[in-house]
């Protein structure tokens, strides 16, 4: 048992960590509390279940940092990207997936691996010995969360994640809505028509904002604080920041032409994206919400085209727990006070499916090497994965640490590149970042083979 890797949590990070270690020849036990212990957001007991959006965001590995992270995870043989590619849906330049078969395939593949065992039940205390990775994500159980807080000697930071509603496609009025990706982005007609668009006039938008601000919202429990991650703000919180905020955010009308009224420019547009391969379910893009269920249906049916919408899932809000990783974790992702325990995924202070899975990939490889008596360096800092892990384990300011998506702002500057700064040189600069990252990441992988 001393050479077995135990992983608490079978989400994106835990699944990826298990796969990486198992592929390297290490015996792995995944400890998953679902379905015996349910959470607010999960619907099944499958490993790697997606609970928020079904999008992995941009898949452009030359001009986008998250697309580069996709590339690195594919290069490392990641299971999450393998399933995403197998179950991808049209989404313009983004990578969106059919969430149920995506999770089912990861679940079945891990269960079938000879080096992987899955044990169901809640772990409520920190293990005293053995090799462990804690990848419990934003919905860490209260008992384990309390144990982590007690060990670290500091209150776990927390913010609140909101979930977007999902609509049955057949209930949408296509005499009002139309299919088009922004700026017709995509190489195929299917990609260029990956989004469903619902237009609003100025009067409709103003009425919608009024109703949104007046709607009943979920109240927080005593002692909870409502800190939000900016990449996942509820729509009503955005509206509270200014009446035009949504129109310059998820409801921006640019790059779209109403096929029903091509000469009429919409004041605002609500977009929906396919949520399953059949196209029978659509999620409302960027419409995370903390409105109560009754208010949600009333307010969302004010959107032109959704007047008679039926919802497969309404939105909701849940607590997201994460560590102050710059003070608590070393560069091998180990808890400084208990180096037999690593952390991975959103609990480390990264935000997003891909970032969470990437931290699982790193933790799995680092833990496997340690168990096998090898020492490997963490991912190179000039790679997307390395930039992210460097940020959360030392590059960020501990006093103001907040969850972070991967972005080029985390990358070390290019030395003597001759590339222009500012917006004019951005395309060349991003290409140089990604070229450098791919070269160094490949060298890192080759050093482990």
UniProtKB/TrEMBL annotation:
Required co-factors: FAD
Residues binding FAD: 9-14
EC number annotated for this UniProt entry: 2.1.1.74
Catalysed transformations (reactions): uridine(54) in tRNA + (6R)-5,10-methylene-5,6,7,8-tetrahydrofolate + NADH + H(+) = 5-methyluridine(54) in tRNA + (6S)-5,6,7,8-tetrahydrofolate + NAD(+); uridine(54) in tRNA + (6R)-5,10-methylene-5,6,7,8-tetrahydrofolate + NADPH + H(+) = 5-methyluridine(54) in tRNA + (6S)-5,6,7,8-tetrahydrofolate + NADP(+)
InterPro entries found in the cross-reference section: FAD/NAD-bd_sf (IPR036188), MnmG-rel (IPR002218), MnmG_N (IPR040131), TrmFO (IPR004417)
An example molecular function term from Gene Ontology annotations: tRNA (uracil(54)-C5)-methyltransferase activity, 5,10-methylenetetrahydrofolate-dependent
One Pfam assignment: GIDA
Example of a GO biological process term: tRNA wobble uridine modification
Keyword set includes Nucleus: no
UniProt keywords, alphabetically: Cytoplasm, FAD, Flavoprotein, Methyltransferase, NAD, NADP, Transferase, tRNA processing
GO CC aspect terms: cytosol
Predominant location category: cytoplasm
Boundaries of every MnmG N-terminal domain copy: 5-374
Cellular compartments annotated: Cytoplasm
Function noted in UniProt: Catalyzes the folate-dependent formation of 5-methyl-uridine at position 54 (M-5-U54) in all tRNAs.
Family: Belongs to the MnmG family. TrmFO subfamily.
Record PANTHER family: GLUCOSE INHIBITED DIVISION PROTEIN A, METHYLENETETRAHYDROFOLATE--TRNA-(URACIL-5-)-METHYLTRANSFERASE TRMFO
Protein name: Methylenetetrahydrofolate--tRNA-(uracil-5-)-methyltransferase TrmFO
Species this chain originates from: Litorivita pollutaquae
């Amino acid at each position: 048992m001393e050479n077995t890797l135990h992983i608490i949590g079978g989400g994106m990070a835990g699944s990826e960590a298990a796969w990486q270690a198992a592929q390297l020849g290490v015996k792995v036990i995944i400890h998953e509390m679902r379905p015996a212990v349910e959470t607010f957001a999960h619907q099944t007991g499958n490993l790697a279940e997606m609970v928020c959006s079904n999008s992995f965001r941009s898949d452009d590995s030359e001009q986008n940092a998250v697309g580069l992270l996709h590339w690195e995870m594919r290069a490392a043989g990641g299971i999450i990207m393998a399933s995403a590619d197998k179950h991808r849906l049209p989404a313009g330049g983004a990578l969106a997936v059919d969430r149920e078969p995506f999770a089912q395939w990861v679940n079945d593949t891990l269960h079938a691996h000879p080096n992987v065992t899955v044990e169901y039940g809640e772990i409520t205390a920190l293990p005293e010995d053995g090799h462990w990775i804690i990848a419990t994500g934003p919905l860490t159980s209260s008992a384990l969360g309390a144990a982590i807080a007690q060990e670290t000697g500091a209150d776990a930071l927390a913010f609140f994640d909101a979930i977007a509603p999902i609509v049955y496609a057949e209930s949408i009025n296509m005499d009002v809505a139309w299919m088009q990706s922004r700026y017709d982005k995509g190489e195929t007609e299917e990609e260029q028509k990956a989004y469903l668009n619902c237009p609003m006039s100025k009067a409709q938008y103003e009425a919608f904002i009024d109703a949104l601000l007046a709607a009943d919202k979920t109240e927080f429990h005593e002692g909870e604080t409502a800190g939000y991650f900016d990449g996942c703000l509820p729509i009503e919180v955005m509206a509270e920041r200014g009446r035009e905020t949504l129109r310059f955010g998820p409801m921006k009308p640019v790059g779209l032409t109403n096929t029903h009224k091509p000469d009429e420019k919409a004041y605002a547009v609500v977009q929906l994206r396919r949520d399953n391969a059949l196209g029978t379910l659509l999620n409302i893009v960027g419409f995370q919400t903390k409105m109560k269920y009754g208010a949600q249906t009333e307010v969302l049916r004010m959107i032109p085209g959704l007047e008679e919408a039926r919802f497969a899932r309404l939105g909701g809000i849940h607590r997201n727990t994460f560590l102050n990783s710059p003070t608590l974790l070393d560069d091998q992702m180990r808890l400084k006070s208990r180096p037999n325990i690593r952390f991975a995924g959103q609990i480390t202070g990264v935000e997003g499916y891909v970032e969470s899975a990437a931290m699982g990939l790193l933790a799995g490889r680092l833990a496997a090497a340690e168990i096998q008596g090898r020492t490997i360096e963490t991912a190179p800092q000039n790679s997307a994965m390395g930039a992210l892990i460097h940020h959360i384990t030392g590059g960020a300011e501990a006093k103001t640490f907040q969850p972070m998506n991967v972005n080029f702002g985390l990358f070390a500057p290019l030395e003597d590149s001759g590339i222009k700064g500012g917006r004019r040189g951005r395309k060349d600069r991003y290409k140089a970042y990604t070229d450098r990252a791919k070269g160094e990441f490949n060298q890192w992988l080759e050093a482990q083979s």
